[in-house]
Amino acid sequence: MKEILVILLISFVMVTLMAQEPVEKPVPKMDSKAEMKMVGIQLLNSMDSDEMSDLWRNFATVVDNIPHRVKGPHYGISFFTKDYNPQTDEGYGYMAAVEVSEIKDIPHGCVSRIIPASDYAVFSYEGNVEHLGDMYAFIYGEWMRSGEVIPKMQESFEEYDINFNPEAETNIIRIWVPVNN
Known about the structure:
There is one protein chain. The protein is α+β, with helices and mostly antiparallel strands. It has one domain (about 30-180): Regulatory factor, effector binding domain (Multidrug-efflux Transporter 1 Regulator Bmrr, Chain A). About 25% of the residues lie in helices and about 35% in strands. The protein has 3 helices and 9 strands, in the order αββαββββαβββ. The protein has helices at about 1-20, 50-60, 130-145; strands at about 30-35, 35-45, 70-80, 90-100, 110-115, 120-125, 150, 155-160, 170-180. Strands 1, 2, 3, 4, 5, 6, 7, 8 and 9 form a 9-stranded antiparallel beta sheet that branches.
């Protein structure tokens, strides 16, 4: 009797596993961008999600006052300063920004940054922002270790379309990772 129960249990587990759809790994699209001039506000030396949420809330209060804006998405830019230390958050920066046609008349509290022209691996994420970290874990874990491409040590960025809503169940966010192609 025990053998029959074990066989039934194993059969049930096998059928359940076979019925699950395989998880597809994200495949980046290769693209390039010309130099971009950005203006926004930044956070230095912290990867704390609450502080980043506060940064975006503060950005929402100044974005309409940024002159020379190029119509289009908002950007979350990750960068390293010359003091970057991989064992700590020291030297890591994050900037909520928009692209501008010229860096001029920057509002008080805002900063500018020029992102150099580059080739990129572009990952499209569709889902709730709560799970965006899973995409980053894949990109900077398994995908980087695969050796498909060689990443550049320069700004990477998230591209949020104008319909982005952090409370929505589904958003589309494109993550641009600079690479040597």
